Write the structure tokens for this entry.
Amino acid sequence: MRLQKNTLLALYSVLEFAFDSSRHISASEIAQKYEVSPHHLAKVLSELARSGYVESVRGVGGGYRFAGNARRVTLMDIILLFEDFTPEPADRRESAEETPVGLALASVMREIDEIAKATLSSITLATMLQWIDRHQAAHRGTRVHEQGAAKAAGPRAPARTAERASRREEVAPVPDA
Amino acid sequence: MARPGAMSDQASAIEDDAGLLPGEVDPPIVVRPARPADLPEVIAIDTIVTGLEKSEYWSAIERRYGNAERAGRGFLVAEVEGEVAGFVLGEVRDWEFGSPPCGWVFAIDVHPRFRLAGVGTRLVAGMADWFRREGVATMRTILARDNTLILSFFRSLGMTTGPFIPLEIDLARMEMVLHDRESVA
């Protein structure tokens, strides 16, 4: 299974919004963070808004905010907005795919896809936020360790500046079920 | 293997549990080893949740797990205000499938009246503690891959896909495969 760029962008965006559903985030902030064109992102956000996962807020300080239930929305829910997993009808398949070799390979690929779909369907945004928090905590731990090592090396050692607390770190972690 | 397939037909009992916020547990949940007197309530929960009465299965469970102190087998219940609100069954298995000793969770149910109260989470946590005391470091379960709600529940507790891949075959198909192989030979 290979996800399109739009799909990945939707996943990045919806997770950003889900971190703090009360906060409005501008499209340009996300575009800058993930280094994508604002125009491209606008289409993705529009689809997320149309589907009710985010809502747009107009005016000063406006932007988008999360409008779903992070404990119920799965990665697959978002992916299905942008991907079509319907199998190709037989008359549209390449002739090679209809050979015994092609059919055998297709059955292997189907098996892989089914496992991928089950995985994506079972991971909620809330679970993702927990994982992201864990990665951030591990990252912070590494940074603290590096800073400690720099300090131990003496005052002339190139001290690393503490990483500024990110917006994600300022919000409360998603509680366990 | 400790009846891992049993999870798929019982786990729908806890699907709503994942929505709990900390501090919402009221009244308190007590997780403790099951007693013989709990069995009628356990069977009642299982019947409500699965819609199937499995008296023979539960008789076997009672024989195998009735003594909660028996090494390697765990049968815990969650009690809320003196009532059995849910249960979990697990077992430590050694070196099967080449796996070092590991705790299998193979059945968990929560009474529908007690959902959204963290009972499922407490049961899994209780079973994890019991496995630790039994000396294992890994907890494992298996679910139908279309049982996304319960998969989500376990994932919300941090569980991920393990290093083993379950395989199966329809025995009629296996007969054909073996026949074909013999023909080629």
